[in-house]
Amino acid sequence: MRKAEGGILLRLLLLFMLHATGTSYSPPGKPTLTRCRSPEKETFTCWWEPGSDGGLPTKYALYYRKENSDKVFECPDYRTAGENSCFFNKNDTSVWVNYNITVVATNALGRTFSDPVDIDVVYIVKPNPPENLALTVLWDQTWPYLHVSWESPQKADTRSGWITLIYELRIKLEDEDEWEEHPAGQQKTFNIFSLCSGGKYLVQVRCKPDHGFWSEWSSSQYVKVPEYFNREKSMWVLAVIFSAFALFIITWLIHMNCHNLKQCILPSVPGPKIKGFDEQLLKDGKSMDAFSSLVGANFPPTTTNYEDLLVEYLEVFVPEERELMLEETKELHNDSLKFENSTSDCDSGRGSCDSHTLLIDKSEEEKGQQPDQQSSEIKMDGKGQDEEDKYLTCSPENVDSHQLSSEKVKTWPSSFSPLPEYSPIPLQQPNSHETSKQPCLSDSLFAAGPLPSHFPHLGHNTKDEIGSSYWQFGISNKQLHLLHQQMEAHQQLQAHKNASVSNIGHLQLPSVRFTEYVEVQRVSDQNMVILHPVPSHPETSYPDWHQTEEYSKVKCVDNDNGLLLLQREGVEEGMDMCSYEELPESDPSKTTNTTFTSPCSQPAPSVQDERVVGGYVETSVFTLPTY
Amino acid sequence: LKREIKKIISAVWVGIICLVFSSRLSTMKAASICPNDQTGCHLLPLANLFDRVIQHSARMHGISDDLHSEFELYFLPSKNQIGRVSRNCHTSTILTPNGKENAQRIAREELAEIILKLLVAWRDPLWHFHQSMSQHDEFTNFSSNKSLEMSDMVHELRKGVLKVVEKMQMLGIISNSVGDTGSPEALLTSDSAEWRFMKDYDLLYCFRRDSNKIQNYLKILKCRIVPKHGC
């Protein structure tokens, strides 16, 4: 009683005193148990955090209760573990027993209990860090490695199996910030490889029981790795250099052969090419002409044999009556029209294809097969001239050999019967005559040569023969040949021919509408070609033209070796039967040369006489050979 | 004729294979783990047995730990209860050493027997625990699988410990008093009623602790019997 009274009095006095000084006081704040830890599962310590002390000196006490027992014990040791701690020694520690711990703060004004905490020693084990960390540099052949060893913390009894610890170490270079961690399991040694030559390393180790907390890291141990030659690294360096070098070389090679590679990998796309299509015409604006050549001459392309295109022809228009007549005459001279391949020797430069030969001959079969085509036939009126048959068989490829009989000359149809015409014409002659084709050029050239000079004659002879028609020379190549006839190799001729063939195609374009055919009735002995109009095919010709156009005479031969013919005016039907003359077998080259090389300043003598047999000649035809 | 040839060939193959295997087996039998009678070498199989059993118990404890923390998440038993009576594990009747000295002081046979008692005591409760878990829908499949695994493991572990004891008895390390099949059964019947009244969470808590005890006791036993092999 007295004690209690004394206590109360004391408290009141204390309060009064405190109140007199003017400060406020309160019971202590609530303490909290922060953690409890056991280093070896045999003892443990609990720490608490005091609350506010309320301005008064506060005492703390820890009370605990063991599992399934109501008996309350107070902490046996407040000092060993430091301030605000309670240490439980071995005698007081029971493992696998649930402790219920509470901290009480007491001051003059009151007591405050903390929240109770249940702990089981097994689950609060945090061992001490491992001890005796030792680092050694050992050598594996030429490479050093680090041998790390340590021991378990002294207090933790792993030998009896009471605690099982697993370890972990970490290593870093002195300058680095990042640690390299290595779990080590239950072993107490560890080897680290791939060390930097001459580097200084720091190593730390820690441990953990199988159910518990990690210990703190042990203190760092230093080790210096001796200098050594890192063969592996140097090998890598070499490999990198080598590959870089190889890459450089490859790049340089690629760069050098950039162009070739481009061709190889990305070949140039071939531009579209249409045979017989003249882009120039398109550019010039004559689109219709450009396209019409496709439709006509080159479509459908039946053969790529360029010799097919080597057509020397002469298109002549003959009115219908005349044709009948011609037909008659033709039949008479069927024999003469046959190809006589053997006799013709159409080598370029040779005289076998003589001047009396004329232009392209069309085969009889061909004519028979395609009567609808505009086959210009220049036929010689072979009246009674059988014995004087001289003919030249010149056949461009697929074109029948030129036959030049004394009486009949057939020319090859040109524009109106464009290329397809050529192909169907069966090659009557064996291949041996292919060679002869080229000379036929010359022949034709020859033929062309004398013509201009004799036009007046023609004109006379065939005065009333014809409606006008175009007389087209597919002469361009021929002309060329005349010029160079002495030296032409076959190939050159061929080349010229080819060029001219294409040109012919072009040539014909503009004149498609206008071509009509004349028939050469004969070639006079003065190298004169007598023309008769040939009735053009109704489909391809313009009937009107028959009426309106007439033959013209050659005005002159211009610089481009073109024959300039004058258009005849008026309509003249019917044709006289001209006197036929044989073309002399003169050296055609001479005559032609002289003829062609003469400029157009030398007009034909019979310029005045415009009523000449012959058709309208498209001068452009002659000007074409500008290749 | 072709069939007969095939038969003969297959028979020959089988014969060859059998010969090979039998020769192998015979060689295996002939070789022993301890060619020379070195000190402690004859204990190597025992040490291996121990290791395996300890690993098994560690796994069992791990599963129980997982389940327990799962339960704590979902059920959160109130910790503010002061003076709750809970957690009177049915195995508290089994006297177990609560400290290192105590554990080291008791005899090996006793320790082995305690282990076995514990394992036997938990056989039925775990099975029923699994049953009740699978019936409740709120538990995930993962948890119910774990409980099944747990109950299976108790069985397996008991068999393993029995084997170890047998081996030890064979080697003459411990006396033959351990592992009487009779006594565990007797224990079982006496305790059969208590655990049925325990809640699931308490059951888990108790088993978690007991599995830890088992693991620890096994380790102590191993390090007492075969100390040179990883202690």
Automatic annotation (TrEMBL), chain A:
Chain ranges passing through the membrane: 235-254
Predominant location category: membrane
Lineage top rank: taxon: Eukaryota
Compartment(s): Membrane
Region described as Disordered: spans on this chain: 360-391, 420-440, 581-607
Pfam families, sorted: EpoR_lig-bind
Polar residues composition bias: residue spans: 426-440, 589-605
GO cellular component terms, semicolon-separated: external side of plasma membrane; receptor complex
Compositional bias segments (type: Basic and acidic residues): 360-369
InterPro entries according to UniProt: FN3_dom (IPR003961), FN3_sf (IPR036116), Growth/epo_recpt_lig-bind (IPR015152), Ig-like_fold (IPR013783), Long_hematopoietin_rcpt_CS (IPR003528), Type-I_Cytokine_Rcpt (IPR050379)
Leader sequence segment: 1-24
Gene Ontology molecular function: any one: cytokine receptor activity
Family: Belongs to the type I cytokine receptor family. Type 1 subfamily.
Protein name per UniProt: Prolactin receptor
Lineage, top ranks: Eukaryota, Metazoa, Chordata, Craniata, Vertebrata
From TrEMBL, chain B:
Localization of this protein: Secreted
Pfam families given in the database record: Hormone_1 (PF00103)
Listed SUPFAM superfamilies: 4-helical cytokines
Gene Ontology cellular component annotations, sorted alphabetically: extracellular space
GO biological process terms, semicolon-separated: positive regulation of receptor signaling pathway via JAK-STAT; response to nutrient levels
Keywords assigned: Disulfide bond, Hormone, Secreted
Family: Belongs to the somatotropin/prolactin family.
PANTHER family for this protein: PROLACTIN LIKE (PTHR11417:SF33), SOMATOTROPIN,PROLACTIN (PTHR11417)
Name of the featured protein: Prolactin 2
Species annotation: Nothobranchius furzeri
